[in-house]
Amino acid sequence: MSAISEIPTADRLVGQVIVRASHVELYRDGQEVLRDVNLEVAKGEILGIVGPNGGGKTSLLRLILGLDRPSSGEIELFGEPVSRFREWHRVGYIPQHAVAFDPNFPATVRETVLLGRVAPRGVFHWFRQEDFAVARSAIELCGLSGLEGRRVGALSGGEKQRVFIAKAIASRPDLLVMDEPTAGVDPESERRFYDLLGRLKDELGLTVIFVSHDLGVVSARVDRVACLNRTLVYEGPPRALHDEALLRTLYGGGTVTIAHSEEEPHTHGH
Fold first, then answer.
1. Residues 6+ apart with CB under 8 A from 117
2. Sign of the CA dihedral 74, 78, 83, 88?
3. pLDDT band at 99, cuts 50/70/90?
4. Left if phi > 0, otherwise alpha if psi is -120 to 50, otherwise beta: which for 19?
5. For all residues of the chain together, what is the average pLDDT?
6. DSSP 8-state class, residue 56
7. Alpha carbon distance 176, 165 (integer Å)
8. Helix or strand holding residue 165 (H, E)
9. Considering only CA atoms, which of 165, 257, 166, 169 is closest in space to residue 216?
10. In the sheet where 31-42 sits, what is the strand order?
């Protein structure tokens, strides 16, 4: 069976705004973390969030996921305020350093991906044939066929990363949120990750939001980019990441290196 038939696209969401942030502000210990952030992410979009360390990228993800509450403003998921949103099985999340996995953890790839079926099924329900079929399709889609019986802790960084993506999509989410998903993986694994993102969008109709420091790859692989340094410096087509004035505004002084895919790295000095 194909992954497409096993994990159907959510056609009912086409054209829908999946995430909406309206005048979002966040203060922590009296310090401004986010200021007047306005952002919409539509069904089927891949949005890359970039910006300097301390610019509020992870904080924005935590607000979207309902892990923190904004000091003012509102975030909506699927048209519902996050504070009232309950269908969390529709949202997949892969945190930073997911690949820093305990090498002694005994779970296999298949067992780990099956855990993704717990959210829609409920903890105290036995797995059904459908669950095994969906997990198998997620494993296949993520390029992990043949590794089902391997312990996750024994895998490479890139393979672990794909296991966690497979686990996330096994719950059939409509939205996938990832915080620096390519941190700690080699360039080949990074390339495979971005290829996989394209397949998740095309085959599953997934909406994807992720944070990255890799401006060059982001500019080549996303539909839209949000440049965040406490407030949104820019939001729109990713080609703007090649604009030196924008990078100067976003990062301030210093030097920003953009490693362009298929080209030699270009360095923009400020």
1. 127, 131, 134, 135, 170, 171
2. negative
3. low
4. beta
5. 83
6. S
7. 9
8. helix 157-170
9. 257
10. 31-42, 17-28, 72-77, 80-81
**Pick among 3.40.50.300, 3.40.30.10, 3.10.50.40, 3.90.550.10: CATH of 9-101+174-269:** 3.40.50.300
Residue 174 pLDDT more than 90?
Answer: yes
- Could you give the CA distance from residue 6 to residue 3 in angstroms, rounded to a whole number? 5
* Predicted pLDDT at 182: 80
Which of the residue ranges 19-23, 125-129, 162-166 has the most confident prediction, judged by mean pLDDT? 19-23
267: confidence class by pLDDT, cuts 50, 70, 90: very low
CA-CA distance, 11 to 9, in Å (whole number)? Answer: 6
For strand 175-179 and strand 72-77, is the pairing parallel, antiparallel, or unpaired? Answer: unpaired
Nearest to 227 by CA among 18, 27, 51: 51
- As a whole number, mean pLDDT of residues 34-51 equals 95
User: Domain segments of the chain: what residues?
Assistant: 9-101+174-269
Does residue 205 sit in helix, strand or coil?
Answer: coil
Judge whether 164 and 95 are in contact, CB under 8 Å: no
Helix/strand/coil for 239:
helix
Burial degree of 66 (CB within 10 A; 0-12, 13-18, 19+) = middle
In the predicted model, what is the mean pLDDT of residues 111-130? 80
What pLDDT does 146 receive?
94
The span from the CA of 137 to the CA of 54, in Å, is 38
